[in-house]
Sequence to fold (412 residues):
Amino acid sequence: MKKYLTTILLLSATIISVQAYTLEQLVEAGLDNSYSVRQKEILHKNARHSITSASWNLLPSADVEFNRTNLDGSYSSKGSLTFARSLTLNEPTVFNYQQARLDKSIAQLDLLQAKKEIIYNIYSAWLDIAQIQKEITIRQENLLILQKLKEQTVLQLRLGQRTSFDVNQSDINVINAELAIAELQNRKTGLRAELLNQVKLKDDGSEIVYNADVLPALDTKLTSDEDEPLLILKLKQDLRKSRLDKTQQMIGLFPALNLFGRYERYSVDNNVLSFADYEESYTLGLGLSWSLWTPWTKGSSYAQTSNNLLLKQWQYEDSQSQLKLDKQNLSREWTYLSETLALNKKKALQANDNLRIAQEKYNLGSLSLIELEQARVDALDAELTANKISYQLHKKLQEWNLLNSLPILNKY
Fold:
């Protein structure tokens, strides 16, 4: 019997552990089910296929031919192996290969950035729910105090120390606290639904674990690596791609210099299987040509490419300037919130001390319920504000990491 009981308890513990979502599980589900990430992964795969195709196109053409013909009852056979390659200053295969390399790099940067944004958005949504859950806990503790205060006020009324107004007011305070908790529970339910929809998980009632251990310490400084963020690196690659386009268009304005080479081995005397008897031929050619209409047919394309490059350059410079501004704003907000958190924690300690003194005076009958309520509200507001700011700091810290392409939560 004891053995069966142990088995049941273990199975129950397993079921309970399964019916809970940790932040890590939410992130994994979000990355697996995100349409944006899937799209970027497919684009990255396509870019890899493109560079493979472009690499093979750099090689000379290789053709093998075997044929047998009948002409007026006379059969003839022929076999040949041919390698041929032509090169121009504006060789499309060379430029296509370079473009494919840049496209692959851009696709990889896009994929990494998409993953980081998904992780941050999931963390941010999870953090909002964790903040509300913490606020609910604080208000539930406050509700217990108000309920005890109501009981105490009713007892003092019987002793003639309080009035019916005090009892009614204490009852109103309890109701207000319950309403505040109900509103928070409703907000939490809505945010939970949004988070599960974001990671494409069905809401089967499983609990979301809000483990504060995953949150990094707030007593840190905002730092950034020397490496540029992913968004800036992507813009750099876009800029290089535009410069490559301009170079290709510019070369096309000049006379076309064409170098052609061909090597062929072919059979003689219908003996296609005697490879040792194959004869060889070599062809090497050099040509120079230029169309009289080039300034009109290609000049406009070159002008458009130059304008596109200028736009890319402006975009890159503007993004660098915006990144610098965003860093300054985030750093300033971090400093402000850190200082405000310290002040609110100090305020909370003093407010709790005042509440303790006010409670003692209220018990002795030397303080009114309204005065006690004011001391209680001050202590509650200070604690709630400190809680809100601490979660804002956690979010700002990971926003900084996202902006600078640093590991989110020191992991992702």
Summary: DSSP finds nine helices and six strands in the chain. Residues 1-18 have pLDDT under 50 and may be disordered. The beta strands are 20-21, 61-71, 74-88, 207-208, 256-266, 279-289.
